[in-house]
Amino acid sequence: MGSVQIVTTILAAGITAVAVWLAVRAVLKMTAVIRLGQPAPERFSDKGARTKTMLVETAGHTRMLKWGVVGAAHWFVMVGFIVLSLLVLEAYFEVVTPTGGLPIIGHWTIFGLATEVITVLGLVGILVLMAIRLRNRPTRPGGRSRFTGSTMWQGYFVEWIVLLVLIFGLLIRGFKVATDHFEYPLWATPVSHAVGAVLPDWSDGASVAALIKIAISMTWLIVISLNVTMGVAWHRFLAFPNIFFKREPAKPAGSGLGALRPMTSQGKPLDFEEADPEKDQFGVAHVEQFSWKGLLDFSTCTECGRCQSQCPAWNTGKPLSPKLLVLSLRDHAYAKAPYLLAGGGKDLTGEEKATAAQLAHLDVLSLAEGDKPLIGDAESGGVIDPDVLWSCTTCGACVEQCPVDIEHVDHIVDMRRYQVLIESSFPSEAGVMLRNLENKGNPWGAPQNTREDWTKGLDFEVPRVGEVDDFEYLFWVGCAGAFEDRAKKTTRAVATLLNEAGVTFAILGEGETCSGDPARRIGNEFVFQMLAQQNVETLNEAFEGREKAKRKIVATCPHCFNTLGNEYGQLGGEFEVVHHTQLLAHMVSTGKLTPVQPVDGGVTYHDPCYLGRHNRVFAAPREVLGDAIAGEIAEMPRNSERSFCCGAGGARMWMEEKIGKRINVDRVEEAMATGAKTVAVGCPFCSTMLSDGVNGKGAGEQVEVIDVATVLLRSVKPEQPQGGKETAPVGG
Ligand code: SF4
Ligand code: SF4
C-alpha cells in the first residue's frame, strides 16, 4: 500500500464511520417517530399480495411511468442507485489499492457491461430529471409549478450527488484504463475506455477518484441523516415499506381508492353503540392519533408535487395542496416527537399526560409544537388551516398520482371526523344537509313520500321490492335520482332503457334512504353508520335467501355505487353493485338495446371521480356513448385517471365555494373548449355542477349537460319525448 493509499483509506474509513453512525441515529429516530402512531393491524394481512404489489410497483414504476419521460428517467436513476451501490462498495477496495475491485463478480465481464450500461443510462436519466426540475422550478416566470412549496435545495442536492457519483465512477474506471489495469474489454465498456483515453497515466488516480466518490456518497448520507424529514432522499428506502403496507394490496396499481377506512380507536373499528369519546379516539385531533402508517406516509413524501399538480382545489386557487398538507403534518410530527417521546401528549379528555419533571428537559420549541392545535387558523397557530381541510372534494387525484402510495383522502377525512363529531366545527352551510339526513333521510330534506314521484307518467309500471316475485336488479334510485329535477330525468331514462331491454328490476321506493356518502365524506361517521345500517338491513331483507352473486343492485349515482359496493361490506352488506353505464353497455353489446339514431353535434364525456378514479369504470360509459353518438367522443385533455373533479365530492356539494375560481367553471371551460354541444356525465352531482357552470357562462342554449343514459335513450328511442334540457334549475 503506497502513501497515497494509506491516506485515502484512512479518510474513507473516517468519513464512512461518521456517516454510518449518523445514519443509524437517524433511522432510530424515524422509527421512534413512526411508532408513535396508532396500531393498524390490518396492514399486516395478505403478505403475499403486499410483496407482489410492492415489487410490481417499484420494479415496474407503474405510477411513475404514467408520467412518460420523467418516469423512465426516474426508473434508470432508481436502478442505477441500487446497482451502482455495488460500485460504491467497490470504491472501498480501490482506495486501498488502485487496481482493486469487488471480489468474484468484480472480475466478470457481464458485471462490467451491466454497470457500464446502467451508469450511462443513469447519467442520461439524472440529467433529464435535473432539466425537468429546473424547467418546473417554482420561480420560473409564469405558470404554477408542481414544485411550489417543495424544499428545492434538497432536490438539487440529491440530483447533483447522483450525477457526481456517476461521473466519479467513470473516472475511476478511466484511470484504470489509462494505467492499463482495467480488466473489461472495450466492447463491454466503451465509455470507460473513452474516458481513459483522455486521462493521464496516473497510478494513484483510481484511489483518489474512489476517495472522492466515497466522500460524495457519505456526504449525502450525512446530510440526509441530519435531515430526517428529507423525503426526497429518504423515499429511496421508505417507498418500499410504504407501498408494502398500502391500504388495498390486492388491488391493481392505481386503485388505492374506494372504501374509506372505518373509524378506528387503538386500531379497532369503532362501534358507535358502545363508543365513548372519553375513552375512544374519534377521528384525529393530534398528529400522533394517525396510525403508524399515516406517519410513515408523511415521512415518505418525496415532495414531487404530482398530487398538487392534479388537485382541483389547488388548481383553482384554494389553499389546499395535498403535498403541502402532507409536508405540514410531517414537519409537525417530527417537531412534536421529542415532546411525545418524553411522555407528553393530551389524553382523550384533553389533560396533559406527562409530569412537569418529564418535560423539564425539553426545549421550548418542542413544547410549543406540542401545544399547537392540529386544525386551526394562523392566529391560533394551527398546523392545518380549516380552509385547507374543507377545500378537499375527496376526488382522489392525489392518491391516484402519488408514486409512493400516500393516502391523503383517509387522512383528510380522519381529521374531519374529529372536527365534526367532537368539535362540531365545519362549514355552517353543511349543517342543513346533516340535519336533513338525520331527520328526513336525504340531504335535500324532501318528504320521504315523494321518493317515487319520478315514476309518474312513465308508460310502464315500476314495481317495488315485495310487489314482484322475482327481479334481477334492485334499482337503487338515490336521493338525487328521486328528488332533484335533472337527476330525475336520468332515473326515468335508465328505467325506460331497462324496461326496453327486458331487464326485470324493482325499487325500494320509500324504503330507501340516503346511502350516507355525504355524511361520511364530511366526517360525520355517526350519521353515516345510522343511515348505512338501516339500508343494509333493508337490502338484506330485500335479497333474503339470495347468494351474493344474485344480490344485484344498479345505481345511477357513483357515490351510492361506491358506498353500497365498497363500504356496506364493513357493516355486513355484501352486494354486487353496478353503475347504470356498465349495465347499459352490457345491454347494448348483447343486442338488448339498439341505438338507431346517432346523437350528433359533438359529445364530450366528464369522468365522475367516484365512478372513474375511485372505481376504475372508465370504459363502460365511453362504450355506451361510442354506440350512441355520431363520430368519436371529443375527449377533454384531463380525462379518465386524470379527470378533473366537478367540485361536488367530499360533501362540497353542500358547502359554499368562497375561495378562488369555482371548480365547476374550470371544468366547464375545458369541456366547452372541445367544441362539443353535449357534455355527457354519469353522476347527478356532476350534472348539477356542470349545468350550473354552463349556465353561469351563459352557454345554456348552446351546450347541454346530460347523463350518458339520456344520450343512449335519444339514440334508442328518438321518437320518445325527452322532457327538455337537463340544464333546468335544481328542484326538490
Ligand atoms: S382528494 Fe382531490 S381535492 Fe382532495 S386533496 Fe386530493 S386532489 Fe385535492
Ligand atoms: S404526496 Fe405523493 S405525489 Fe404528493 S408530493 Fe408527496 S410523494 Fe409526491
Word description of this protein:
The structure is a single chain. The protein is 50% helix and 4% strand. It has 732 residues and is mainly alpha-helical. The strands form three sheets. Strands 4-3-5-6 form a four-stranded parallel beta sheet, with helices on both faces. It has a three-stranded parallel beta sheet with strand order 7-8-9, sandwiched between helices. Strands 1-2 form a two-stranded antiparallel ribbon. The longest helix is centred in the N-terminal third of the chain and has 32 residues, at 3-34. It starts with a helix and ends in a 16-residue tail after the last helix. The structure holds iron/sulfur cluster (2 copies). The site of one iron/sulfur cluster (SF4) has 15 residues, from helix 10 and helix 12. Residues 310-313, 320, 322, 392-398, 408-409 line the site of one iron/sulfur cluster.
